[in-house]
Amino acid sequence: MNIRHLGGRARLLTAVAALLIGSNAAASTLNQNVSWTVDRAGTTTKYRIVAYGDSIYAGYNGSTTNAARYSAPTVDAEYISALWNADIESIRRTKSGAVASDVYNNKIVSERSYMQASSTRVVTFEMCGNDGLQARSAFKSQTGTCNFTGINTAVANCRTYVAAAMDYINANAHPNTKLKVISNLFYPGYNADNVQSTCRSSTTGATVNMRDAFLPALAKMNYWMCEFARQKGFKCADSFAQYMGADYDSNGDGQIDSDALRYVAGESEASYVNRISVTLKSTLRDANTKFVSSSSSFDYIQSDDVHPTFTGGTVTAGLFGGSTGTGAPRQSTFTGGKSTIWNRYGHERMGWALSVFNPTTP
């Protein structure tokens, strides 16, 4: 065997081993960058959508070498392509496992050049999921008296870096940008968290329900994502409402559940958190069983109980670097602004939620 080849193979195996060994560590991250152009027949005009984030926008599927071709931002690119009759370049600059500060510093700030191109028309981002997941993991391992400091810190960090990200994008995105949009957090593992803690409340001395501990914190994160969006000229794609509520009225209050759960512009944090974690809590459903009608459901979460489901194949993204590709849109037209699979997969639903804000012209 060629010694140079053997050395390269050894370095690769070492890198893989290091990643796998660190996969359970809180700080384990993996860059997963993808550029995919929706090549529409009959046009050569091309615009760009730039997406920054963690494993959600990355299209993570459990692999260290590939990711979903059609994660939510690229799904949105197909909608924009049809709306504008143009080619759309979907640029995803993402790091799986990254907390909000990492996404902000090492993606949005360090890789700002992608949104500074004159072809940019849409900039979107998501963050804070890993802040929440790490805080949840730490809380679950506690014994003795429950300490909520980690959960509260995750909420505070999310608020800080969401605001900073919006300010930075506002200052650095090309003036041609027509839309800036954030996607908030769904609740992965909603059913699995319906268990008692191994720590005890300092007030009652009893164990606490994990879901009851985490849901208000996640609601606070989501509130500030949407509220800062309102304040800073962004739109907010409410993925929590899209994933966690049924698309019919399950409680007879006259509202479709997924509509009733949406952030309401101008409401207070206290009002939103109470509405999500108390008033409408009975309508929340684990996104592994997303009811699109009273008799039909789809699985929005992969078997890891964290990442959205997808369709349309994968592309290289991870240990072997990013990838660039081009392909025709899967559908050339969208009846009523929706693809035929808009509500069947997690990434398709999130991509549609982004698309409702697309400007009518570039």
CATH superfamily: SGNH hydrolase
Unreliable runs, pLDDT <50, ≥5 residues?
A: 1-26
The overall pLDDT, averaged over residues, is 93
Rg, Å, rounded = 21 Å
The CATH level-2 architecture is identified as 3-Layer(aba) Sandwich
Number of strands: 15
Tell me the structural class.
Answer: alpha/beta
Shape: globular
Topology order in helix (H) and strand (E) letters:
HEEEHEHEHEHEHEEEHEHHHEEEEH
Q: How many helical elements?
A: 11
CATH classification, class level: Alpha Beta
How far is the first residue's CA from the last residue's CA? 55 Å
Any idea of the CATH topology? Rossmann fold
Q: Which band does the percent of strand residues land in?
A: 15-25%
Total domains: 1
Major pleated sheet: 8 strands, mixed
Work out the helicity level: 25-40%
Provide structural commentary.
The protein is an alpha/beta fold and 362 residues long. The protein has one domain (27-355): Rossmann fold (3-Layer(aba) Sandwich), CATH 3.40.50.1110. It has helices spanning 3-21, 55-58, 72-84, 100-109, 129-140, 149-172, 210-232, 239-244, 257-260, 269-279, 346-355; strands spanning 30-31, 34-38, 46-53, 66-68, 87-96, 120-125, 144-145, 179-183, 196-200, 207-209, 235-237, 290-291, 297-298, 314-316, 323-327. The strands form four sheets. Strands 1, 2, 3, 5, 6, 8, 11 and 15 form an eight-stranded mixed β-sheet that branches. β12 (290-291) and β13 form a beta hairpin.
